[in-house]
Amino acid sequence: xxxxxxxxxxxxxxxxxxxxxxxxxxxxxxxxxxxxxxxxxxxxxxxxxxxxxxxxxxxxxxxxxxxxxxxxxxxxxxxxxxxxxxxxxxxxxxxxxxxxxxxxxxxxxxxxxxxxxxxxxxxxxxxxxxxxxxxxxxxxxxxxxxxxxxxxxxxxxxxxxxxxxxxxxxxxxxxxxxxxxxxxxxxxxxxxxxxxxxxxxxxxxxxxxxxxxxxxxxxxxxxxxxxxxxxxxxxxxxxxxxxxxxxxxxxxxx
Length: 254
Ligand code: NAP
Prior knowledge:
With 254 residues, this protein is α/β, with parallel strands linked by helices.
């Protein structure tokens, strides 16, 4: 990837304060793109922006709850007002929710997970796409998961939300295929972030079990997902749309 690759492009990354989103915001900046870091976590988000600026890049932080359609609309408008357009979007913010079987999952947990992971992705696309249509070009990558490809016991809302993201991605890809907007998803396996730490307690047996679930015998790094997103957003992926790309160390190959 050359620095000129995304020069003059504008990218927004939701969930950009930590984990995969942060790694991707930094990676976009490395390609020369102007980056909007979007998250509910302000302090960490501003650190992502500072890290980009320290390397000579351009970035802003926009505090936004992606489960609120009005906030998402204002956020996208602010990105366009600040940077003069929107070319790439990584709709990544998400939560794992509580662990419980399908019968024991609470209505509150179901609604919360779906509102952030699925409705949040839809709100982002709803307000991003008109700007991309206006520009005549755009590339969107939505965050799904291997839990959008296969079932996972005890996280029914999460699994349903990520399957939903893949369905929504394919639908939008078909709708805008002739209008120069590509829409893809990434489906990471187990990636070493705070989300996995919350599942495992951070270290020890829980973490080893997670590593053992991966055919390659280790967790992925956030930067490995970021590289896939940068490629999908670039012109190098010009014939790729509607694809749920596994970045998973072989997880769904079994
Ligand atoms: P992470 O470090 O927890 O990052 C997620 C970020 O999104 C956090 O800063 C989080 O804030 C923020 N966020 C949560 N709800 C939000 C909302 N309503 N509006 C805006 N921002 C919100 O976790 P991650 O592992 O990088 O996860 C990023 C995405 O990758 C998620 O969609 C996740 O489902 C997906 N994913 C992760 C893995 C993995 O193994 N790590 C695998 C497959 C897919 P809080 O910290 O306050 O929640």
